[in-house]
Hints:
The model has no long low-confidence stretch (mean pLDDT about 95). The protein is globular. The protein has helices spanning about 10-20, 35-40, 65-70, 85-90, 115-125, 140-145, 160-170, 185-205, 210-230, 240-250, 255-265, 270-275, 285-300, 305-315, 320-325; strands spanning about 1-5, 25-30, 60, 75, 100-105, 135, 150-155, 175-180. It has 15 helices and eight strands.
Amino acid sequence: MKVSILGTGGWGLTLGKHLFENGHTVVFWTHSPEEAEMLSREHEYRDKLPGVKLPAAFKYFTHLGSAISDSEIILLVVPSQVMGNVARMLATLPPKGKSPILVSATKGITEDTTQRMSEVLLSNIPWLTPENMVTLSGPSHAEEVSRGIPTTVVSAGPGPEQISTVQAVFSGRHLRVYTSPDQIGVELAGSLKNVIAIATGILDGLGMGDNTKGALMTRGLAEITRLGEALGANPRTFAGLAGMGDLITTCMSRHSRNRYVGEHIGKGEKLKDVLAGMKMVAEGVPTCRSAYALAKRLGVEMPITEECHNVLFSGKPVLEAIKDLMQRELKAEIWN
Length: 336
């Protein structure tokens, strides 16, 4: 099967390497001619995936039409805030034969429209049907998957045949894929856990303990579930791989870019300085704005997300934010 991967970040390259090892034909699209030339020459991306050699058979295109020609699966692994631009480009390239399955492996919610990635793609691509829109998400750091460390993820969408096709194509010796019909829940879980990871990193930067982090992750999952239910998700999804699994991984891992951002905020650094020193995108930063806006619009209580928003964008001292969370009105432990 031919798979076109849009985006040459660490996760896109890792998935491409994995699919190639599964016996599929893999091509890439990048907007950068310099990046395409470097990858074609060096078969490695030291800044994004150091120490991982990529197959010499990979082809890298800067012309989108050439990259997706005759592909059966188009895998999108671009930053969430540029997904709309990529979708509008795809809209001008309707398939000549059978429509490909579009798979989004991007975790995030747009700042301008507060849309999930499947919503961005479906609202911008006239030839894309809901059944052909699949989400791939779960606890899956590229640094580990690229080295063959066992990992499990979820293929989610409304089309049973399509999510099963993605399951079969992506599953391999080191990557196991489950299926779910709850695309809303899987996408929200994968996006919102990045906000909680920033908050967890702040605790690490302050030198807080395991008790605090355990409480934060648990209550973070509770408020993610509340927002998910308000948007039509199945609450059970948030106890699965895309929910609790990805939340634990992202909050605890040394590979987590979002936890890294939070840790440096906790140490007293400014957000703009932290982001300026990063080579990769921390999706939790724009997603925090989006989640805050969604919660306000829907009337959903998300105190951790709100305080994270206050710290990142309003300059609220982190210790004051923690004090306000601890001194909220006492209540029973409920998840709705």
